[in-house]
Amino acid sequence: MPEVSECDVLIVGAGPVGLTLAIDLAWRGISVTVAETRARAAPPEPKCNHVAARTMEIFRRLGIAGKVRDAGLPSDYPHDISYRTSFTGAELTRIRIPCRRDRFTMKDGPDCNWPTPEPPHRINQIFLEPILFEHAASQPRIRIVNRVSVEDVVVGDSSADVRLRDLDTGDVRRLNCRFLIGCDGARSVVRKAIGAELSGDAIIQRVQSTYIRAPGLIDRQQHASAWGTGAINPRRSGMVYAIDGSERWLVHNYMKPGETEFEAVDRDASLRTILGVGPDFNYEIISKEDWYGRRLIANKFRDRCAFIAGDAAHIWVPYAGFGMNAGIADAMNLSWLLAAHLNGWAPASILDAYEAERWPITSQVSKFAMSHAEAEIRRRGGVPENIEQAGPEGDAARAGVGRLAYQINVQQYACAGLNFGTYYTRRSSPMTAPNSPPTPWTATRPRPCRVAVRRICGSRTAARSMTRWDRSSRCCGWIPQSRSRRSSARPATARCRSP
Question: pTM (2 decimals)?
Fold first, then answer.
């Protein structure tokens, strides 16, 4: 464990949220220490298969979008979502999503024509996290301390004091930091230290999640490959996600309402039913991580100099990577606020905006994820018995289920509205000045972009990246003409006239 007794910012957790926060703070000139329990280069569990457009825009600014987009599935592997009677069964419907090779050229589909130079990218966390770690470790302002646990957190008015325990030697050292940020997941030590409590909805589903190696599976399909394959039949419902486009797969088995114990459900039989393979098919379980589907949000995101972000602050049904991407959005909101204060151009009161802005957005996204989960649960409970039957009646059953599956799921997999529809209002933010009223949006259709104006130290500053302008917004009064078309590697401060 390095000889360190104090630092400006301590981030607990080196997952995608903590690493992105560290990289962004370093980009803004702030030195950061990151504490992580895992060993250097230890692979994460295969979570989150989707990097949202807003997150890709952040990675573009930080200089890593190219590496992220070049990783994951092979360039020509379809990113489609296919719904079938089983992985190897008849196809019911398909949501077409461009593969990496065609992401910028394909125009016909529900996930095409994104209003940004960085549309979404399908990549599992096991490939994303090493890219973030490598980039963070190369930054001179970032110190990553692996194989340490953060314990005995004491939060004060102007600093926090923690105990770092070396998990290999048992050595203990105390560290004092001006700001402490918990990106340490659902069992967050920092959340407990600030006295935040999770509250929300009851458990609505249980999912057996199994990471397998099955080299012969891909060739057993009747249809073209897809990034995600939903299995819908009266016996079992599940999702199969391609991890490497060859032999590794993540299989979710959605347990039935009466199945309350994970180990009481035959994992092997469920997997084979979802995959549509018999007892002679061989596969290897790499790991398993079962989970509950529910919605929980911390009642506060901050106590004085300590903050929480990502899964430490909110947990919900992990559909379409909304959890990780919402966590990175938390991190970016907090990063510029902290940097503004630490760099001396904003008072400490600017930090009040973090919880005020992120809590309502978190609630909004979590409710969307839960409503989608509830719709899927209803659909899974109504699978017709004749869906696998040959002939006209079976054809009609498959067509009906396919239409419903498409209607429900295109909203989570082609979600431009959710990416670009969120906004901060005067009611939710202490720094947002009045603007034109918000325009309605849906999960698949973004609202027209409005100018986000922030009030800081008596003036206003634009602190949100803009990918497109609403032509009805009058911007010339607050952006100097000489800088309105400015392009820079650093954000420019734009001031406006007093109201």
Answer: 0.85
On the 0-12 / 13-18 / 19+ scale of CB atoms within 10 A, 13 is buried
Chain-centroid distance, C-alpha 234: 31
Report if residue 111 sits inside a domain.
yes
pLDDT digits (tens, 9 = 90+) for 203-255: 888 999 999 999 999 999 999 999 999 999 999 999 999 999 999 999 999 99
- The pLDDT of residue 215: 93
148: nearest Cα among 183, 125, 177, 173:
173
30 versus 409: the higher-pLDDT residue is: 30
192-197 contact pairs (CB < 8 A, 24+): 192/153, 193/153, 193/154, 193/155, 193/303, 193/306, 194/155, 194/300, 194/302, 194/303, 194/306, 194/308, 195/300, 195/303, 196/298, 196/299, 196/300, 196/301, 196/303, 196/308, 196/313, 197/298, 197/299
CA distance 119 to 385: 39
Rounded to whole angstroms, what are the CA distances from 499 to 62, 478, 483? 34, 10, 21
Question: What's the rounded mean pLDDT across residues 449-456?
Answer: 39
Q: Are 283 and 390 in a shared domain?
A: yes
Is 33 domain-assigned? yes
Mean pLDDT over each residue of the chain, to the nearest integer: 85
Give the closest residue to 321 by CA, choosing from 23, 37, 33, 68: 68
Residue 472, pLDDT > 50, answer no
Whether residues 349 and 209 fall in one domain: no
Q: What is the mean pLDDT of residues 129-153?
A: 96
Same domain, 346 and 358: yes
CA 376/CA 370 separation, integer angstroms: 10
Rounded distance between C-alpha atoms, residue 386 and residue 24, angstroms: 53
Pair (284, 429) in one structural domain: no
Distance CA 339, CA 351 (A): 10
- The total of structural domains in the chain comes to 3
Average pLDDT of span 70-98: 96
Residue 110 sits in the same domain as residue 155: no
